[in-house]
TrEMBL record:
Signal peptide: none annotated. The keyword Isomerase does not apply. This is Putative ABC transporter. Residues 9-21 have a biased composition (Low complexity). PROSITE patterns: ABC_TRANSPORTER_2 (PS50893). Residues 1-21 are annotated as: Disordered. GO terms for molecular function: ATP binding; ATP hydrolysis activity. Keywords: ATP-binding, Nucleotide-binding, Transport. It comes from Magnetofaba australis IT-1. It holds the Pfam family ABC_tran. Residues 33-263 form the ABC transporter domain.
Length: 344
């Protein structure tokens, strides 16, 4: 194959470039991303003002907030493309400010407006990206083949990037971001411009990347497109307030919406439920109540037992799908707190 990327001289590559491999042997409880007291300023404007959060390993975190609030700036700081005014950032154990080149080997980043070399084939684009990250042959070829199979691009290897559909171009761009097998993947508005089928395929791809061992941070202001794959929600409300919340079940304690129905009406039901510290957001319906529950199965059992012992004719207690919009609105309501951590 006449591969432009493979003709690059080895002397152009850093001599100490390590093999970019995932590190699943690291302690699972250690956060993959740590941000402490981050401050970033453009001339005349402070965009990020003393924000802090951590992201767990092998999670998919939805980064959301109003347009212009600083989501892209935050992602570029994490990608070592912006230098913060002050604060500490660690990604995959690397100090982003002190070692930006090493950080680039540990992360993949896809900007909102990404670029492809339209005259190169799919394989050449991936090979060029691998070599740009310091991966030598024959490992570069092996990683390209792996990315092609992982992204379902087997039938497009020899197609030029400029001939691909929008969905396939998006997959190729993600391939360029992950071909060196980073531990962290940062995606800025990845579903922008995609049709419904391509969005569904993208969701499945992101879940597969998480299962492969990657930690993902995905920025978007469209909650519906984040709902299918996100495990955590990171809300950037303004320059100073950020809120991280777990939104999926990966242990016994997670936020969920419950629906409680009675065999006959009891006007004191809502008052009784409000006394439980695990209950909030009560909504009364014609024949039932719904509420957010923050506790484990044992606490849920205790609530049900209390209702039955006090004569409430419970006929059904079921779990409803908790939409990302529920978690977002809850985070907005609570955003006056000075610091945030993972909420379970």
């Amino acid at each position: 194959m006449n591969d432009t990327a493979q003709q690059m001289p080895d002397e152009a590559l850093p001599a100490d470039a390590p093999a970019p491999l995932l590190t699943p042997d690291k302690a699972a409880h250690e956060p993959m991303v740590v941000v402490e007291n981050l401050v970033f300023e453009y001339p005349g404007k402070r965009v990020l003002d003393n924000i802090s959060f951590t992201l767990p390993r092998q999670s998919i975190t939805a980064l959301t907030g109003a347009n212009g609030v600083g989501k892209t700036t935050l992602m570029r700081c994490l990608a070592a493309l912006h230098t913060p005014f002050s604060g500490r950032l660690r990604v995959a154990g690397v100090d982003v400010v002190a070692a930006p080149r090493l950080c680039h080997r540990r992360i993949g980043y896809l900007a909102d407006f990404f670029g492809l070399y339209d005259d190169l084939t799919v394989y050449q684009c991936l090979s060029h990206a691998a070599r740009a990250h310091g991966v030598r042959e024959p490992q570069a070829a092996q990683l390209c083949e792996g990315a092609i199979h992982r992204l379902g691009l087997q039938n497009h290897c020899n197609a030029r990037a400029g001939q691909l559909s929008r969905g396939m171009r998006q997959r190729l761009a993600i391939g360029q971001a992950i071909v060196h097998e980073p531990e962290v993947l940062l995606l800025d508005e990845p579903a922008s411009g995609l049709d419904p089928e391509a969005r569904r395929n993208l969701s499945q791809l992101l879940l597969e990347l998480r299962d492969y061992g990657m930690t993902l941070l995905v920025s978007s202001h469209i909650l519906a497109e984040l709902e299918e794959y996100s495990t955590h929600l990171l809300i950037l409300r303004d320059s100073r307030h950020i809120h991280l919340q777990q939104i999926t079940e990966n242990d016994d304690h997670y936020e969920r919406r419950l629906r409680l129905s009675l065999a006959e009406p009891r006007p004191d039901l809502a008052e009784r439920l409000a006394q439980d510290r695990h209950v909030e957001g009560l909504e009364s319906h014609e024949d039932a109540v719904t509420f957010l529950f923050h506790g484990g199965r044992a606490e849920q059992h205790a609530l049900l037992r209390d209702l039955l012992e006090n004569g409430f004719p419970v006929c059904c207690l079921s779990e409803e799908k908790l939409h990302l919009s529920d978690a977002y609105m809850r985070g907005i309501r609570n955003a006056d707190a000075p610091r945030w951590s993972v909420e379970e």
